[in-house]
Amino acid sequence: MKARLILSAMMSSIMVFMVTVLVTYLNLGFVPDFLLQWVKAYVIAWPVAAGTAFAIMPTCRRLTDRVVAHLERPA
Fold this sequence. Notes:
The protein is an all-alpha fold and about 80 residues long.
């Protein structure tokens, strides 16, 4: 449980960082308050992403195992 929580927090933090920087830039450009606008987006998006990642990780692992097993099955 602890590892799942840490992994969810780290993965979602990095993903949200990249996506919010990109989307904030695409929507606003590098305006004088870019950093403030980006931080607002990050602070809103990260808890949502972290909670979602934590909740769906077991299902995604099971689905990944099934896909990999299917791909590795001899033809």
